[in-house]
Design a protein that fits this description.
Blueprint lengths: L48 H12 L2 E2 H11 L8 H13 L3 E7 L2 E6 L1 H9 L1 H21 L2 H19 L5 H19 L2
Antiparallel strand pairs: 1-3, 2-3
Helix pairs in contact: 1-5, 2-3
């Protein structure tokens, strides 16, 4: 049985910033810092939840590292895609914990499967795993609702107009207050829809 501190033997990923893991795992423990952000800068997963999401995805079928990235991006409608610097250290930790195993290699790509120990861990944390996985789908649904064609076009148009108007010479404080008031009024009207 492997412990959280037994990563040296199996660790196959080293960050470009030095050491195992990456800045997202910033507290020195590969399993603790899954503090990456989804749409709007919101925290996607609490500590340990990415591991549960990956186990949940492996429960459906064996996967390669890139498959996890693509599946999460698909479920969020493109709003969030974890980086390899997040996925691969988490896979290494799951391997160290005995929750996943390498099934067979297809060329240089490693295929992972969930182990019996991984299934037992997932079952113990089923509600949390399902909630974290559901959050991915909710983010995708929200993106589809909010990021529809007409809204996206209008937001882009507003951004361009603001940039052009506020970058012009001679913009005084009153103009800034007027622009802010217009945006606040529009926000209030949207809220009341």
């Amino acid at each position: 049985m492997h412990s959280h501190h037994d990563h040296g033997r199996h660790c196959r990923f080293h960050s470009a910033r030095g050491g195992r893991g990456s800045a997202e795992f910033g507290r020195g423990d590969l399993g603790r810092g899954e503090d990456f952000r989804g749409g709007g800068g919101r925290r996607m997963f609490e500590s340990g939840q990415l591991r549960l999401v990956l186990l949940r995805l492996l429960e459906d079928q064996p996967r390669h590292g890139y498959d996890f990235i693509r599946e999460i991006e698909t479920r969020t409608g493109g709003a969030y895609a974890p980086s390899p610097g997040v996925i691969y250290p988490t896979l290494t930790l799951l391997d160290d914990l005995g929750h996943i195993a390498e099934a067979r290699a297809e060329g240089t790509r490693r295929l992972f499967t969930i182990t019996d120990e991984g299934r037992a861990h997932l079952e113990q944390h089923r509600a949390e795993a399902e909630a974290a996985t559901a959050r991915l789908s909710a983010l995708g649904a929200e993106r589809e609702r909010v990021d529809g064609g007409p809204v996206r076009r209008a937001i882009h148009n507003l951004r361009e107009v603001l940039h052009q108007r506020l970058a012009a010479e001679g913009v005084d404080k009153q103009t800034l207050f007027d622009v802010a008031a217009i945006i606040d009024e529009a926000a209030g009207r949207i809220e009341r829809l």
